[in-house]
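Appendix B.2, paired examples.
Example (i):
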Amino acid sequence: MFGIKPRIYVMPVGSTASSDVLSDYEGMLNSLRKLNADLVIGSPLNDEVSILQRVEEVRRSDFDAVLILSLHGFTGHLQALFSDALGLPTVIWTLPVRYSLPTAASAVGYLRERGLKVRLVHGPPTDLGIIKSIEQFVKVAAVVNRLGKVRIGVVGGIIPPMVASHYDRIILKNKFGVDVVHIPEGEVLRTYNEISDDEVSNKFKDLSSKYLVNAPEDGVKKALKLYLALKKVQESLKLDAIALECYTELFQSFNVNPCLGYVDDQVIGCEGEVLNVVGLLIARWLSGRGALISDPFSVSKEGVLTFMHCAAPASIAESPSKVHVVLSEPPSIIKFRIPVVHCRPEIPLTTVTIFRIYGKLIDKIHVTHGDVVSYDLSKALQINVRIDNPSGFVEEVVGNHYVVAFGDIREELKLISNWLGMKYIET
């Protein structure tokens, strides 16, 4: 639903004049049809002039990565030339025949010294395990490429207690390519006042037809009006996500919570957090599913990590009939006791990956994983996850919000950490 489909250029290097090479080449292409990516397959080349001409052709398009097929030996210089000239993350598929591996190994050694992201995979054309390895690599390449185009809007700031959530916007831009855009609250208010009653009523009808609404209509409409205003601001600024200072800023200004955009899977950074918004986007793109931010609330001796939060995106539920829009109360520590309206999806009982990007240089990521064993929507969005190393998690925990992604994406996070210069810490 939210996954990225990488765009890959396939460059076969070598001559297919002999029948055995041609047979292997066709077998590799047949296996690549199972790859979840958009492939552009070039014709095989075996000389430097043609390689350089092909480079110029490929540069005219936006590819996430290159896949080189090493068809036989004495082509390492051509493989290195093609990848180095483009500067894109590169996978080289080598065969167990015709010196395909040693010539590609030479190219890999050269390219790594040049600082390029390279993965060598080895096996016959029918080895589908290779497809899995290629898919993981090119998906990460696509995520990193996409991050470089991300724009995150911020209304307000980070709330005072969240001292571990501050970040340097310049480091974020230089390291991840992410732009942060300040949105004045006055702009939100101006747009809010332009939202018509008809727009709100139509949105309420749409919401009521899809989800289980157990909250007063006027309260839901009030929250929807603020969401529609934030959505319009987000669209006008071409933002991928938005971070909101909720209870200490927008909540007091509008007398309603600003996060009902979860009903439409708006990507929201709670309480002004931006780095967890980056984590949410990464989680969605890697898993292809919705993800959420939540507070690690408690850890039992039996290894159950309990998360507690206000709300989460509707897409997390297995169907619209399992999404609840409810009237709730702010957390007890919030002095403003105005009823709020939250989106609370029923949580699938499945494997999750839990992580947080952090550090004053944005150079660390703490990761764990487990299985959702139960949830409770009655007073808050409570999720109980059984993890293998509860004491290790407590020892390394570094903030009051973590991203909860559905599925096991640890290997992809390791690769992203390596590419973006983050220390990977798993407990």
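Example (ii):
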Amino acid sequence: MGALHGLRLTCTAGYADVAARPAAVSPCRVDRLQTVKAELAHCRSFPPLLLPSHASPGHIPGRDPQPSPASNAVPFPGPADMPSLPGPLPRADAIRQLLPWLFLAAGRPDDRGLEALATQHALSTLRTLDLSRFAEGSVSGLPPHVRWVGSDKAPCPTIAASAALARLAVRAELGRKRGHDARGPDSAGPTDAVLAMHHPRHAPFVSEALWLVLQYHWGMPAPEAIEIVSDICGCAPIPAQASATALELERFVRGWSRRVTLAWPYGGASVEVVGDLVGGWHCRVPLQYNSWRREWRLQLLGLAPGLHRFKFIVDGRWCADVHAPLEHDFWGNANNVLRVGEGGRGGDAVATLGAALLSFYCKLR
């Protein structure tokens, strides 16, 4: 595909055969799951960390408290389509530890609460994640250069929130390993941690997100995952919603198997794509400039099988990529074309793959 500068198709051959086979569980995954279970059981015995009852100096009631410049709390910016909340989160009174690197608060701690948590656990970095912002809108969790164009909706906010948690878990694990290397093998506790915050009314949403992380990201059996989440959040995921989420993960993998990457390496101040590929000739979807590749790029997921026609709009001018497949319509206009094949099958292994893919796509800056 090296000669096709503007259009790069992703090979999906053999996907259906792989999806049909049961997924083999690696020994490393089994060991990690056992470690997570032991850490969950250990941390559930800890009492919640009660926060100071007075507000931070300089805090204005009714506004979201911001970390002080000297704080080591790093806010999670979230995807580009992250909505803004209609009001600030209430102040959290306590922080509960779920894992050595994961804490949960029903509300937003102020500066003193963040600093007390970081100091008590000797954290070099405390990443904060506002789960309520996922719950308030249809957040896909996809970065700006990836667009879901399927006829169905993009992955639901619950799946996007679980992907963000799983990706932050990887960062916390890397921070823990770096801390052990720097402080010696006998050091205890992580140096990086995540504080997940949410509005109290979003407790059911948080329970579903945590259940997704336990079952599909870490491979915990469903009954055990539901029991742990019920103890943590005080409510269990609804069985019907859990089944719908698994089907949605399978649908995401089918959309991923029909992915297409568009590239425009010919310059321009702005590049957009229009046509059947993105929902019609009235829909303009911008490409994102990739400074490393020095070209405009956009990855499309969820394309319907069949033939798609499209064109580029470069600095306001409609044009086609002459190095990609072309087709002339009845009026003699040249359009780029591509044919998308069928996707793969479903199954629990495919749902697990969908969770891993969304965690990979989750944009963390």
